[in-house]
Amino acid sequence: MLAQLLALLPARFTGRIEPRARRQVRIWTKNNATLRTLRYGWARRILFWGSDRPFLFALLLGAVASCVSYCAAIRTWGRLVALPPPALKPDFDVASYTGVPWSVQATLVALVYPIVLSFIALMLQRRANSTAAMRAYVLDCAVIPAGASSVGLLVAMGAEYFAAPYSSHGFLAKYMGAFLTANGCWLFFNLLLTGFFLTRTVGFIQDDEQRHVFTRVAVDIALRSELISSVKQHLFVNSPQTDWNFPAYRGARDAQAPQVLNVAMGRGIPSVSRDLKGSKYLHDVHLHLLAFVARRWHRRAAAAGSPRQNETPTLTFAPRIGAEASGEAVLCTIEHGPPLNRLERALVRSAFVYRSSKNASLSLSTREMLDELASEAESAVEQGRFSVAEDRLREVLNLHKTLLLASVADAEEVAGNAATIGSSAYSWGDSSFDMEWLQPYRDISRLAVNHFDTDARLFRLLSYVPANISNRIPPRPEKLLIDAQIVGKHLAYLLAAWWLRKADETLAASGGAFSGTLPLPSRKVYENAIISFVGHWDAVRVRVDNNPRLSDSDEWLRHASGALVYAVHIENTAELLLKSVSRGDETASTWLFETFLKWWGNRQYELRHREGLVDYRTRNVTIGLASKSWAEAKEVLWDGSSPASLEDGRDALNLSIRRYWESMRLLVALLLVENAGTAPTHDSRELRLSAALVNGDAQDRGGRVEVQPLASIDEFLHSLLRELFSVGTSIGRLDHFVERLRWDEDAPVVTGWSYSWSRSPDGLEFMGQSQAVMLVSLATTAKPQVLRSTRLIERWWNDIEKLEQVARFLRDLRRVVLSKSFNELAPATVVLKSRLALPLRTRTARLGVARALKQLSAVAQRERRLVMDSFGTDADKVHAFGMQVAAVAFDGAALNAPVDGLAFLPGLSLKGFSYRFNYHSKYFVKDFGLGADADFAGQIGKEVRQCVVAWSFAEAVDRLKWKPLNSTALRDDWDASIEQRCALIIAVAKRCAEMRREGEEPIVLVGRSAAGTYLRAERWGSSAWQTEPPESVTIRDGAGGGEFSFVDDSPVFDFDTPNGDCYIVPLDLLHSLTVSGSGANDAMSITWTQAERDRLAFTLSWRSGFQGKEGPGI
């Protein structure tokens, strides 16, 4: 009963998620042009509703016909005269009159619909899979509501036919007009529905209309239903945090506060369940009811007190939106928390709305529709009908692009396209709609590669998929275009696997070495496939149309998304090249190398930028600019007078794309050298391609090469240093690319021949050997000039930290060049030099490179030293550092027992102490230094705190003339005799007793010496490795107050005593640690002097001491 009452209440009142999800999707897609074009009208939506609920639709039409009959034939409307009843003759045969239309209607229902449906079913049987097509036809032609209406009218006429003989003549004379009106109205609706059904069926026979219907149903019914279902899941799963304001889930072990979850984690005891009859699915949820229950339970769980370790009270609402269930369904579980009361359990049961079966429209999914088209293409390939397979694959691609366009949304929460949200809130990994729509290409790709030697049309079309999508879909969000490149990468992977099989067969047949090129006719077939793939892969272009209605910020985001798409395309191209080289594929290596080398040259006119833009504003522009907002980008591009325009921003993005390609070119050249090995042959593919990358030499005709020079030591070092140390550099992205280069060790290989890299590649900064080989190979003289690199380093004069890093990097690289281990790289250097056509001897080249590196390192050190000497040390920074140290050193709460605090007394004459240490001067340079690191200040402060206590106690020992209780010999005697140990413990107990008799509370302090070990309780006992304690002395373990043992109830503390000796002192003494000053800020002074070239010698000074009364202490 409660569930029925809740269904009558407004959705906002109970928090139903179904209307909220529909409203959200409608807001996202209200301006979508594709959806407006393919959207069904309101009349068709009524028919779709009738397809889902045919019985209710028939009752609705009957009710409408009855209302029309009542208004036209029974009710009088003032001057309007109602339809008069017909005059019936006494011998009028009512049964015969009603039987004629009844029999006609029965014939129509029995023949027309079954025959037409059978014809369509037979027509669709020609397909390999026609389930989705048949459902699309049923929805589009409205056969279900039309048939339900016909059957409903047939039932109504049958009731009239059987009731007519039992009706009186007067009754029939009075109401015959009403019955005729109702039957006529309903029959009119049936004729309309039947005519519409037959018209749509005739149109569906045509192939073009079938594709249009299939696309329209996929976009306006299946996609809309999936989006609503996904939004419902996300709303329900995230409601505890977004709607109910509970803290985010941090794991059962990390959180102790009560937690509320809407995702079952497999734990907890069922608290509320519901018995479901038949198979049902969760359709809707009343969130406000669950919020009421969750808040009440959370308050009770929080009031119950803190749980035990690793036991977090958790309330979980376990059902999943859209999941089918039968029998007993668990609605709520509780783990380590209070139970729900009867009212709360009733509300939970009523909050979940189950339906008996899924709607017909919901049974259609976009993934299934794409899979059905893909299966037709696969079936056609297996039957050798490649033209049909090409047509079906083209339909898959067109439907895929239409779905992406139909998902375009005016909402930032979905980044401009609803296809980026997860298709299910309960799945792991990337389960977005756009990734789901890419799955049908996998099996088609496999068949296309297996049959491309027979017919390459399917392979060529698949190669064009990434470019086709990129040219058609808006660039924002970039995820859609980046994910589309997966199709090309997967196709390249399958093509590589085909090549490996053929190479294995070739090696098995020849029994000799394999050159990396397949024999004829496989070589020609494979080369044609590679050329086709490379041509389509290189055709990827991002189209950004001008839209004057968009703001500069939105327009910037579109161009920035395009830049990110190009960056990923550069990375994928480089990855495909490196993989082809790693497996020894000469054909693929050559053509993919051409693609990579000519990447910018083939796009320089599309991505052109003004020449005057390359100035100080864009000096540090990298691909990271594409990740910034328009406001942040304007700050980067500001010239100090006028703000940057959108045109400036677009040109800067194009410049950043080129620079990223140049950075990737540098990285790929070094990776090829890195994996050429220490003893490469003269025709090493890695070194040949690396040299061609450096020189910008194309391997074949066609295209355009446009590269920045790298073929000299100065140019190479300039590019390397800029990439490693410039502001906003792309080094992080490059290193991430290197980390992704992980080769599958289980991949098939040709027997006896290695296809994997010689070792795992490192990041760009750590590829020292490859950099050294490249530099030595580029040397043309024993005294190379490095003017550009020098100017670059001098440009960093205001960053002393960077200059130090540059100097260290250059010194390390020079050490590699001059090391003995470089001799192992001499063969690779000789081969690379021959490829670069540079005849200088390796030894002379090494010395020349070392000289250049030393010169640049000296430049960096000189610039750093000039800045530090010119600006000097900032006294304020030093003083702030001293205050940081003093705050930690004089923190009384951090003192260890038995010292329980310290006091500040200004003007008190105490003994002075000093603590000296050295530290880098770069942190204290005026206007440039960042100040001392907080962790280092804390570390020095802790060391000073220990010195304050230890040195103050040593001063008290000296001042009060106290003597240690242990002898000097026992101090370092780690294997003392039993008599010596017992004598020590007896002396300690005796002295403690004497101090108690004198009115003092004794404590035992002992340092890290042999005497300290003999006062530990574990050393005394009856075990074989222990010593029996004297009968007059009791020794036991500490009680957790800082002491490690008790001797006759006197605590023994580990303390920094002079020489580690044992002292027994009054407790009051250690309660009187005093520091001269009014507080930590003025209790310590700091001074400094220049110690070394880049280090300062600091001196910390303070006065402190223990000011207890002079008493007996030993």
Largest sheet, in brief, is: 5 strands, mixed
Helix content: 55-70%
Strand line-up across the major sheet: 1-3-4-2-5
Instruction: Count up the helices.
Output: 40
Oligomeric form of this entry?
A: single chain
Radius of gyration: 43 Å
Can you tell me about this structure?
By secondary structure, the protein is α+β, with helices and mostly antiparallel strands. The protein is about 55% helix and about 10% strand. Among the domains are: about 30-205, no CATH class; about 230-365, no CATH class; about 875-955 and about 1080-1105, Major capsid protein gp5 fold (2-Layer Sandwich); about 965-1060, no CATH class. Strand 3 (about 315) and strand 4 (about 325-335) form a beta hairpin. It contains 40 helices and 15 strands. Helix 3 crosses helix 11 (about 205-240) and helix 11 crosses helix 15 (about 385-405). Strands 1-3-4-2-5 form a five-stranded mixed beta sheet. Strands 6, 7, 13, 14 and 15 form a five-stranded mixed beta sheet that branches.
